[in-house]
Predict the structure.
Amino acid sequence: MAYSYSYVMRRFLTIALASAIFSEIVSAQTTLQLYAHHDSAAAAARRAGNWTAYGAEIPFLDSILNGHPNVRIVRARIGAHLGDTASAYASLRDFAAMGMRRRIEADTDLVALRGTRSWNALMERIAVNGATVGHFTPAFAMPDSDFVAEDITWDPTGKRWLVSGIRRSVIVSVDRLGRQETLVRGADKGWGFLALAVDSARNTLWATAEAIPLALGFDSTLAGKAAVFRYDLRDGSMLERYDLPSSERHGAGDIAVAENGDLFVADAADGALFVIRKAGKLEVLVSKGELMSPQGPAVSADGRHLYLADYARGIARIDRANGKLDWLRHFRDMALNGIDGLSIAGPHTLIGVQNGTNPNRLVRITLDDSGLNVTRVESIAQDESAIKEPTHGVFVGRDYYFIANGGYGAFGDDGKLRSGERAVAPVVAKIANLR
């Protein structure tokens, strides 16, 4: 997570979106350039109150976003304004089936639908979507209320968790008895640690850091700077540093390490995916232009591919050798957006930590034998009192440990505590026997 989630959504979801088939990608333009073109046209039509023209642009946008829940809401709005109530209700039923929640009763664009039997049934279903799901227990808490936890990983050799702290730029180790100590303290003022990955075979801890307003000591002259670090896993001493090019704004976000030592780095600001092969140089695996906000890479069970969550577009599968990218296909009543952390739970199973949806939740994503088609999305943990802004998780044997409340949302885009908010120490929770 290189930017606040509200920033990502403002940047890429500035208008509401609906669904159809996208067929206009041409070699002269990247996907995101096409998105910007249709986004602009749709926004203009919406401002003019031309719902027919607005609806004509939506198919292109929806296909790029691969079935975002907001698409269902906008389709309902368009249907309501154009008198197509059947389409409007169908879209809202898809939204409800995704497990999403929203105060649609306050949506003035849906006035024409209110008060019917279908509307009342939808209100009941959406209300139920906020119920607590699954069983999880607190494992340990971080020491400081303003720690702001982003990532967690497991060191199988040292039998300890490692947790990154953005605010104070630290990486803290936590053993099975709950004892904590600082393993790494960042040397760059105004930078915060984000992602972590352990390569125990090479005694290596990989970490990303970025100059970010949330980190203490940040100032605007640091904006856009980011780097990948390689540390000695045993004592936290720095072995190598890879600075991302300073000519453009970058965000060295989430990472994953393969068994052979290859490291994959998602750039949430630039949209590129980098690779460092066997501790060599930083290279581009997927160029910018296709990914909007890449998050949470995870190496597939067979080691051939990388599954990558895009905060706006869903989940992609990427060939590790050549960077070929395919988006996972899924039914229109499945929500794959808003995933921050992604983990492999088996040959055909992913675990997604979804903090860009309402409610925040953890989901189990089941794939078919091809690894490209989603057959089921199941909420396995949600609780609005205990799971607030979950970020990442890690398997330790069959058990899954995840950061249940990272704490990022208590602070504004300027890095200061929001008015009326209270910083709370992050809690790591456990789901037993998840795989």
Summary: The CA atoms of residues 174 and 180 lie 5 Å apart. Confidence is low (pLDDT under 50) at residues 2-28. The chain has two domains: 5-128, 137-431. The first strand starts at residue 137 and ends at 141.
